[in-house]
Specification:
Elements lengths: L38 H20 L3 H23 L6 E3 L11 H9 L3 E6 L8 E5 L5 E3 L5 E3 L9 E5 L2 E2 L5 E2 L5 H8 L5 E5 L20 E4 L2 E2 L1
Parallel strand pairs: 1-2, 1-6, 6-9, 9-10
Antiparallel strand pairs: 2-3, 4-5, 7-8, 10-11
The structure holds the ligand Nc1nc2c(c(=O)[nH]1)N(C=O)[C@@H](CNc1ccc(C(=O)N[C@@H](CCC(=O)O)C(=O)O)cc1)CN2 and adenosine-5'-triphosphate (ATP).
GO molecular function: 5-formyltetrahydrofolate cyclo-ligase activity; ATP binding; metal ion binding
Keywords: ATP-binding, Magnesium, Metal-binding, Nucleotide-binding
EC number: 6.3.3.2
């Protein structure tokens, strides 16, 4: 210490000149979300959580599944009554259930009976927003992309209220889906933006989905256990 030769002189600083090594690497990634995880780390984590949640959902018993569907239907009725005076006159975007999602088709048919206009999502291209085609009970269907049934019509509508199926969700109302980014892209582009209601099982709750910049928060999350 204190030698005359500046080249190999060492000094004791109060703290290291650079603290970078002590914070998460994601901190410096401009693509990192609020979680601070890099986009890459977050995507890998999501893939794993998605698989775990889908396996848990597939293992749900039939009785629990049906009980959840009944509770969801009742809660959705409450939401529509409280926030939209029932929602008659507004187009409600639903979904045709796939991969263990709650089957709300019976409920959608009952809404139609009350005068509610309904629509279902249609994938037009892998990286495009969803569009919505009108649906009523008994409507002719055709297989769409990913083999998901879609209304067999060329008509298109804009839902003002949109049910968004969840694989995972968090208390900040961020969602995880199947990884196509379809609902994020759709909500980002829709004008006027519909009131987006995430619909899924309570078991899909995560402490955080580690949101990325492209993730659109939903307006409400409804599960069999309550409304978030
Ligand atoms: N019932 C329902 N309908 C819906 C959706 C939904 O989540 N639920 N969608 C909501 O978006 C759209 C369809 N989205 C889908 C997105 C991905 C895959 C899919 O099979 N993905 C591949 C992996 C793709 C990849 O990683 O590149 C897979 O899971 O094997 C299927 C449907 C429109 N209709
Ligand atoms: N508004 C957007 N514009 C362009 N790309 C987007 C947009 N939103 C999402 N993406 C892309 O979609 C991909 C999938 O996103 P994410 O993992 O959040 O899907 P997801 O919400 O689980 O899927 P889905 O909505 O289909 O169920 C991401 O790689 C992201 O870059």
């Amino acid at each position: 210490m204190g030698g005359m030769n500046g080249d190999d002189e060492t000094r004791d600083y109060a703290s290291p000149a650079c603290m970078a090594g002590q914070v998460s690497p994601g901190h410096f990634d401009p693509a990192a979300g609020a979680s601070g995880l890099s986009a890459k780390a977050s995507a890998a984590w999501r893939k794993q959580e998605r698989a775990r949640l889908l396996a848990a959902r597939a293992a749900m018993g039939e009785a629990a599944r049906q009980a959840a569907e009944e509770a969801l239907a009742a809660r959705l009725n409450e939401v529509l009554s409280a926030r939209f005076a029932g929602g008659a006159g507004l187009v409600l975007g639903g979904f045709w259930p796939i991969r263990g999602e709650p089957d709300l088709r019976g409920w959608m048919a009952r809404r139609a009976g009350l005068g509610q206009a309904l629509a279902l999502p249609v994938v037009v291209a892998p990286d495009a927003p969803l569009i919505f085609r009108p649906w009523q009970p008994g409507a002719a269907m055709r297989p769409g992309r990913f083999d998901i049934p879609e209304p067999d019509t060329a008509a298109e509508v804009m839902p003002q209220i949109l049910l968004v199926p969840l694989v995972g969700w968090d208390a900040a109302r961020f969602r995880m889906g199947y990884g196509g980014g379809f609902y994020d892209r759709t909500l980002a582009g829709m004008r006027p933006r519909p009131y987006a209601i995430g619909v899924g099982h309570a078991a899909g709750r995560l402490d955080t989905i580690r949101p990325q910049p492209h993730d659109e928060a939903l307006d409400l999350i409804v599960t069999e256990d309550g409304v978030v």
